[in-house]
Amino acid sequence: MTRRNPSQVAILILLACLSILYLAGCVAPAAPTAAPAEPEGEEAGEVFKIGFLAAVTGPAAFLGEPERDAAQMVQEQIDEQGGIVDADGVRHDVEIIMYDTQGSGDAAIPLAKKLIDDDRVVAIVGATRSPVAVALVPILQEAEIPLISMGSSSAIVEPVSERYWVFKTPQSNKHTAPWQVRYVKAKGLTKVVSLYVNNAYGEDGRNAVRDAAEAEGVDIVLEETFEATDTDMTAQLTKIKASDAEALLVTAIPPGASIITKQFRELGLEIPLVHNHGIGMKPFITLAGAENAEGVVFPIGKLVAADALDDSEPQKDVLLDFIEDYETYTGNPASTFAGHAWDGLQLVFKALETLPAGLSLEQQRAHIRDAVENTDGFAGTGGVFNLSAQDHVGLSPDDVVLVRIVNGEWEYFPPEEW
């Protein structure tokens, strides 16, 4: 027979006693772990799904990557705050469904259809490039779902009567071109050349420069264009150098804008070089070379001048918070284009907060469209948005400042220094 020591005997007696107590009902089994309680007073509702289309890869990735980063940051923030509470006090998780358009309309169209039909999103924020956003317009119009574009061209939202479901967050060229023209006129120059990329964004810039020049009494002595894929603009620049132009106004984005700037310097042109807001990202300076970009002037939203804004400016706190959040999240400098994504998502969030419970998906989409169109006084990164049935952008030239590139960095360039 196996002999047990006193410690083993004591343990066996204790176990026997516990068994007797358990069978007698004196000791209850451990209760299962309870599920986390929903926030008091808030019923949990369906997940709100928002589509997001950006050129994360491809030639426009330098724009699409910061847009994606902003969307990922916003997803994390909305998760931390527990989603969105609608107008009836129902809490909803939010899922931002992101797809890469590669900067191509051919890729973007089936992705938009997937978001609409398969993912069943309530709205779409995208796309990165103006030509891609223009290609999406008929798809979203037919499906009757809100599109908030991160592309800049006015053709995305105009004519408004044919863009009922479409909005955008970047400033239009008609908001920035007046600053290009005002700057050269302030320097006493009245003869300019307009050089623009041959796509929806560039053509919109050409038209905006025409209107601004006429309003300010400035003559356009030459208009030249180039393709987005061109790598040599010396023919256009040589013609400009031979003209009597006193300044060059450009509407383009990198890499084209950077090539123009580099070759402008190499050909020895000495007239002022004034770009539009399409160059508002550091890859422009990197591709052009800091020495070539030195002194370039361009208009853009107030993000780059956030620290210099008066405390009474409604955007100031928004901009400073966005800059801190974005730079902490990504480790990269704040990007105007990331701001376009942030603004678009916030407009959708604000609309969702006004959404009554119990609507069908089609009714939700229509309500969001109406709520975005009636946005009033929303301070975003791109400006103070005041949208209406006549204006699906809601910004003005007052939401723009002029900046100058100095030592490879952007520097706020106030009118008193012109």
Question: Can you characterise this structure?
Answer:
- The protein is 41% helix and 18% strand.
- The N terminus is likely disordered.
- Helix 2 runs parallel beside helix 12, helix 5 packs across helix 6 and helix 8 runs parallel beside helix 9.
- The longest helix has 20 residues.
- The chain has 418 residues and is α/β, with parallel strands linked by helices.
- The strands form five sheets. The chain has a five-stranded parallel β-sheet, with helices on both faces.
- The termini are far apart.
- It is globular and about 70 Å long.
- The protein folds into two domains: 216 residues, Rossmann fold (3-Layer(aba) Sandwich); 151 residues, Response regulator (Rossmann fold, 3-Layer(aba) Sandwich), CATH 3.40.50.
- It contains 13 helices and 17 strands.
- Strand 14 and strand 15 form a beta hairpin.
Number of domains: 2
Classified by CATH, the class of the largest domain is Alpha Beta
What is the general shape? globular
Biggest sheet features: 5 strands, parallel
DSSP helix fraction:
40-55%
Q: Biggest sheet: strands side by side, in what order?
A: 5-2-6-7-8
The number of helical segments is 13
Count of extended strands: 17
CATH names the topology of the largest domain as Rossmann fold
Radius of gyration: 28 Å
